[in-house]
Amino acid sequence: MAGRRRSKVTLTDEERDLRHAMVSSGKAAASKLNHARLLLLADEASDGQRRTDQEIAAALGLGLRTVERVRQCFVEEGLDLALVPRPRPRGAYQVDGRLEAQILAIAKSDPPSGRKRWTLRLIADKSVAFGRGAVSPESVRRVLKKRRDPLAGEDVVHPSQGRCRVRGPDGGPPGIVSVAL
Fold first, then answer.
1. Contacts of 22 (CB under 8 A, 6+ apart)
2. Cβ atoms within 10 A of the Cβ of 143, count?
3. 36, 25 in Cβ contact below 8 A?
4. b/e map of 144-162 (b: 16 or more CB within 10 Å)?
5. Are 71 and 6 in contact (CB under 8 A)?
């Protein structure tokens, strides 16, 4: 990381005073306070010291990449955006309609030889064998749990190694829907 260009952080007197007040009051989200502390330590105009990213990361208990990213965001986008961490991208639900149909077709088919029933792991492995990429047993469980047709009530899927039982939306047995009277 020695080849990276370090973004220079220079806060105005007003910005510095507001960040000190924010940090001392402690009345903000922890990540926002950490970013404010980071900017105060990275500010080269306040005390004349030049702290490295490694020193700042060690002092605050943050990752080196976080320090680099907040510095860069401050320089490119301004103080307000540097204080508020961007939301982390979450993995979208990876099961599309084709994969869901494939999982259901596998679950309805006869289990492999030597097996009495399908397990979530067996269905996931069979889906991968069809070339659809990695499918987790948890994704298979979600697909089968969404079903309200007789498939869920036919005792198709049993736990693999004592876990991962498919349950209905109310937590009861699969395929049986509770009706409130």
1. 28, 32, 33, 36
2. 22
3. no
4. beebeeeebeeebbbebee
5. yes
Q: What's the N-to-C CA distance of the chain in angstroms?
A: 65
Please state whether the predicted TM-score (pTM) of the whole model is above 0.90: no
Percentage helix, strand, coil for the chain under 3-state DSSP, each rounded to 5? 50, 5, 45
Structure tokens at 29: 């989200």
Q: Which two tokens stand for residue 4?
A: 């990276």
Adjacent-strand bridge partners of 157: 118
* Residue whose tokens read 């260009």: 5
SS3 (DSSP) at 43: strand
Surface-to-core class of residue 83, CB atoms within 10 Å of its CB (0-12 exposed, 13-18 middle, 19+ buried): buried
Sequence-ordered list of residues with C-beta below 8 angstroms from that of 16, at least 6 positions apart, any chain: 40, 43, 46
Token code pair at residue 25: 């009051």
Q: What is the pLDDT of residues 61-111, one digit of tens each?
A: 888 888 888 988 888 888 888 888 777 666 655 678 888 888 888 888 888
Closest by CA position to 36, among listed 53, 5, 65, 11: 11
Cβ within 8 Å of residue 111, ≥6 positions away: 117, 118, 122
Report how far apart, in Å, the C-alpha atoms of 30 and of each of 5, 70, 74, 77 are: 28, 15, 18, 21
Retrieve residue 81's tokens.
């955006």
What is the domain partition of the chain in residue ranges?
13-83, 97-158
